[in-house]
Design a protein that fits this description.
The protein is an alpha+beta fold. It contains 5 helices and 14 strands. It has a single domain (12-147, 156-323), classed as Acyl-CoA thioesterase, double hotdog domain (Porin), CATH 2.40.160.210. The protein is globular and about 55 Å long. Residues 49-114 form the Acyl-CoA thioesterase-like N-terminal HotDog domain.
Amino acid sequence: MPAIAPSEPLTFAQAMELQRVPSHDEIYLSRYPALSYDYAPGKPLSVQRSYGGHVYAQALWAASQTIRDTGLRVHEANGYWTQAGHANRPFIFEIKTLSQTRSFILRQVTARQPTTPSDDCPFPLSDASKELGPVAFALTCSFKAREEGPGYWIKLNREKYGDLLQKDPTMHPASEYLRGPNRAGTIRLADFPGIEIRTPDLTAYNEKNRGTEHRRMHIYRGVAPLIEDPNMIAAAHAFVSDRAGLSVLLHTFEAKTLGVSGSLNHKMVFHIDPEKLNLDEKGWYIQEMSSSRGAEGHAVIESRIWGPSGELVASTVQDAMFRSIKPKLS
């Protein structure tokens, strides 16, 4: 019998839950399935590819398990997708140390999956003993000691969007679905664990700003129960950060669809201590996205994440593969 997806939406802590695999190495098994592009609560787990932001965030959280006694916090994360993930089996994360000083620790995480689906959910520890496929995702991430000192930053220019960002965030449309790459299907955003997402309508702005000036945006906040661990807070922001990158390409290229598309690499830098990035129902974060260059089958997607006060709190750069649909020969 195929494993069954949880009937209720997971909390973010549940979605990130890991179990240590008995070993001399730092190896962890994910307990719950990643969202997939035909995920259905209470139904058999999907055979479709999984949402890439899940393994990105969970790899970061897995690395965080190895530095719990240091007091260090996530500083940056650089991930590479090498295989499509599957939602009907766990990820097995192996963590290695690349460098370690008093102020910084650099970890490497590789994620693999069993070659066969799991028979149960939550995923049992025995799944880690199955034959594993090739590396599906690789991450390097650094953790740093908290520091106090002078700083500078830019702030969100709300005025360039007119009065759009002056309204109550709950008045913006709820993002009901996330469309997957290569017609993989959709994810119902109500199933996103512990996060509410809204999408401001930038149609008026984008009618006058096309191509590389095009902007995509979503705003998000946490929902109860609140996340308390600073490194899990960072993982939650990382989870959301991968949500809409490929849609930026669709609009920048003014294409209805891309033939083949997918994220190759995603880098995220946290500019302030994650402890200051609380995800709760009071503070809304804004992710503002654009693409400055696309050619030869891939494109770069940049984003800035602004905190509730308009302060720049994190930045991302994503490299994505794209190939346009070639017209059929008559």
